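Quick one:
INPUT:
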């Protein structure tokens, strides 16, 4: 049996706010199989963002273990975490997070630059944009693209290094319903074609209903996994 892409065991995250301790995650354990599409839901303050930051290697837990692709990453130093993040994780954000002065193709090239890829970088970025339906928008800057098109650029950028997981934080949150549906269709299509594991943090029940499993958080604990 294939090894899970994510194993989370007894994760805890405590933030010190002056003299007050805030328990953002209390005792979270779950497994994500390779190729799964899951969503994480919960009210504000439930721990969704904290969990996403840890899964995306943007932060470390206070206690517990996080194993990504067979490697324990919960105790890595910042520079090692950054390396894992670049190679293993692709990000899609609600606000797109594109560089405004760069073209679509230059934005998609960025993760390859950080990874030290030099050969065929431009061609790979162009092919990625073609795969998300933006072959005619290669040299457009974000201000020249619609919200849905900007999110397509962000998705191409997230996939460019063939990551183990895609972390999508409210990927349809800034889009109209038509563009949001197109982005979700594209995400699910990429999962089907590439087998990439997708983790979506969302408030939208319609988005969550399209995933294979829902993890619901409340007060730093898993309330229910469906």
């Amino acid at each position: 049996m294939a090894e899970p892409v994510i194993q989370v065991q007894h994760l805890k995250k405590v933030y010190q706010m002056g003299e007050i301790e805030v328990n953002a995650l209390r005792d979270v354990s779950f497994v994500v199989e390779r190729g799964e599409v899951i969503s994480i839901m919960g009210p504000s303050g439930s721990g969704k963002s904290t969990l996403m930051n840890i899964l995306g290697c943007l932060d470390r837990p206070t206690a517990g273990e996080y194993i990504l692709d067979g490697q324990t990453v919960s105790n890595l130093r910042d520079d090692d975490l950054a390396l894992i993040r670049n190679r293993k994780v692709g990000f899609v954000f609600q606000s797109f997070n594109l560089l405004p002065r760069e073209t679509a193709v230059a934005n998609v090239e960025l993760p390859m630059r950080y990874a030290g890829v030099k050969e065929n970088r431009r061609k790979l970025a162009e092919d990625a944009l073609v795969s998300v339906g933006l072959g005619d928008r290669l040299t457009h800057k974000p201000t020249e693209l619609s919200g849905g098109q900007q999110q397509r650029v962000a998705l191409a950028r997230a996939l460019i290094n063939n990551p183990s997981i895609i972390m999508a934080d409210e990927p349809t949150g800034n889009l109209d319903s038509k563009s949001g549906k197109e982005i979700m269709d594209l995400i699910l299509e990429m999962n089907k074609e590439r087998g990439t594991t997708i983790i979506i943090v969302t408030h939208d029940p319609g988005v969550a209903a399209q995933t294979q499993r829902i993890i619901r958080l409340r007060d730093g604990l898993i309330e229910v996994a469906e």
